[in-house]
Amino acid sequence: MEQPLFHYVAFALTVAGLVAIIASLIGCWATCMNTYCVLSMYFLIILSLLVAEFGVCLMITAWPQCLGLNLNETAMVKTLQANYGVPGNEQFTAAMDLAQTIFECCAINTSINYDTSLWKLQSLGNKELTVPLTCCKLMNRFEFTAYLDPVPLNATLCQALQTQDYEKSRHLDVSNE
């Protein structure tokens, strides 16, 4: 698409709002005039709005790629590896930490995603960390700001390198949980 998705969404919502306003004016006019011609026009406008809405919902459900709603896992992993913990990308880091806290996950598909990230390779974070603390199972996970100050149940086991050591204290891959 030439423009960002939200440009088209804003345009579509504006047009839909204008059509709804016109339909409501015709509805008021139809009740005052009490003629079948105007009532038929009002009915057709309402019917076409419902059919168009159903078509858009069906298109989004059946073909999300046309709106750019598909997820490219490889691109997401590359974005994580390039932006997590990097100075200047604090909002991305906070968003990832929030997602990991809420969804109790680690990285995009596995904690290995962090092994080749700039955060790990350039030691931008704490050098003892194998994964961010939000990958660990947290004592304060029910607190609203837990992603800003995570308190792991067992930080030592969570940061271990062997799977059998960290499997009870770190959020695992989706396939393993």
UniProtKB/TrEMBL annotation:
Location (main, coarse): membrane
Protein topology in the membrane: Multi-pass membrane protein
Xref: Pfam families: Tetraspanin
InterPro entries associated with the record: Tetraspanin/Peripherin (IPR018499), Tetraspanin_EC2_sf (IPR008952)
Record's subcellular location: Membrane
Keywords annotated in UniProt: Membrane, Transmembrane, Transmembrane helix
Annotated protein name in UniProt: Tetraspanin
Organism: Anopheles merus (Mosquito)
